[in-house]
Amino acid sequence: MMRAAIHLVLAGTVTDPALRESIEDDLLEEYRERAEGAGRPAAVRWALTQLFVSFPDFAGLGATGSAPCRPFLGASAFYGVLVLVVALGAGLSEFAIRGATLSGYRPTTVGTLLVSVAASGLAGYLVALVASRAPLAAALGFGTVCFAIGAGALALGELAVDGWYLGAWGILAPVTALGGGLARVRQRLAARAR
Amino acid sequence: MTGASLGDFELAVLLTVAALDEGYGAAVRRDVSRRLGRECTVGAVYTTLQRLEDKQLLRSFTTDPTPVRGGRSRRCYELTPLAHKVLRDARQRQGRLWEGVSLTVKPT
Description:
By secondary structure, chain A is mainly α. Chain A contains 8 helices and no strands. Chain A binds chain B through residues 18-19, 21-23, 25-27, 29-30, 50, 53-58, 60-61, 65-66, 71, and chain B through 24-26, 29-30, 41-44, 46-47, 50-51, 54, 62, 68-69, 72, 74-75.
């Protein structure tokens, strides 16, 4: 379980396979030692804390040496998305409590949402492709604009689609846009490593 | 003086690698945490190790497979000749800074 969690986080951030394997082994070694000494719950807490706090650093570890702005971008993107998701989660919960969510369910709108979210991911990738100097920041910026559009439309109340759609899109668009940006960054790093 | 400048944490990591027999990531993290008296994260240690490698103060190599890791090897770090020079310079600089300093409390 913990091995899978560590592997997942590192596979999504560290692009150099040798370095990734090395970090994974180090984390697992310390995890096992702590599990034997302090117990499994304490070891799990330690490992999860390490993964959470180190995420921006892992994102900044490149395959071809460190660029000065990469750790900053990784950290900004990670915490930016985190704050955004928490804020949106709180906003959407309130929206759901008011009972507007499920009453507006329609299959056609679900299809539209899926297409919109996929488009956000693709747009995030393209934005990162164009803004090659700061791809993650650009993708996150694009996602934030998507969120602002969704939130603005909700606030104005002049909805051509169901209200829940805008809420869901507002949450998913920044995440998928950033995902598209990350895909572009990883692709570029892998190409550089070759 | 050399061209390479060192931050506090970089110096701590470099000294830790110098002190360890086998300077691999987990061992460096544990030892540097003990030396600094605070828990250092894996990410911070690896970022610093990579930065020091970029500055050509460390070089990494892979050990033979070890049974502790189920037959997998470790990525270890060792100091380069440039790092030895940088550390000597840092020590001399520290010494000069402390010259003539007395921390005894004078009665008021």
